[in-house]
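Bumping with the actual sequence this time:
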Amino acid sequence: MPLKVSDIGEKGLIKRILKKTNKNLINSSFFDNLSFKSLNDDAALINFGDNYLVATSDMLFKSTHFPDEMTPHQIGKKLITVNVSDLAAMGAKAIGIIVSIGLPKDMLLDDFDSLMDGITEGCLNYNMTLIGGDTNESSELTLCGTCLGIVNKKDVLMKDGAKPGDVVAITGPLGLAAAGFQVLFNNLDIDFKVKEKLLKYALDPEAKSEEGILLAETSAITSATDITDGLASEIGEIVDASSYGIGISIYEEMIPMENEVLEVAQKTGKEPLDFILYYGEDFELLLTIQKDEFKRINDKVPIFKIGKVTSSGKIIIVNKDGTQSVLKPQGYEHLTK
């Protein structure tokens, strides 16, 4: 039976696109002159004097990206967040975004105004500008943002530089957004303050823009990406991108686990570690760092050491009891059957 796009998922489709792009375009003189780089990264880099112009694009659909409980204002802000997060993973400062919107014809004008308020508030949060876009009629609310940023060439962060011996680190606790969505989907009876905190992570996330810029300026980050599809999936991206044949080992006891995540996992009968490894939507940064530079980096930007880069070629998790398991680099897929 012929394969459908849903059979290989979002990341599989991206790999097919990159294979065709690399084969047909990269060797052209046009690409050489503009020095396009990082087609495997979170954003594209275009030669811009001493800097790179950084460009990324994300498309979001109401049916697959936003729960019913999410307000139009929160939806607008999240469009900005997902784009800025890609720039943060490259160490770039966001400067502007172009937004194209597919609008259902029965959408209330008040909801449209709230959506745009969320977009403009998101822009203000990251000191950037809405610089253009388009609107059209659509069967469901559809948002596409193309975000531009800038980074000095010597500071840019990419996925492909991790080497054996590097430290693996993250910029903050994971799994809180996943726990927040579980609260929504299961209507859990939990403390109001706990619920409020978790729903903030799930419905109103923030990109680590300042952290990405500061980390890039240290010149000690060997690779980076943002964590949107789960830690295991993003670790797989770092491993696949490296030209050194690396593996990565992470340690369960070193991964920060918030009490709120443990509480929700207990109430839903799920494994709390799964929230961290496979659910995504965290928008923290995953980093590999030169071992001798970890303390200096941690003094500048608070980060959590969770493992190390190895030469095993495998992704390993060392459990709290000392046993080891091989992790498959799977995570949240936006494309569903």
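The tokens above came from a reply further down the thread. The chain is about 40% helix and 25% strand.
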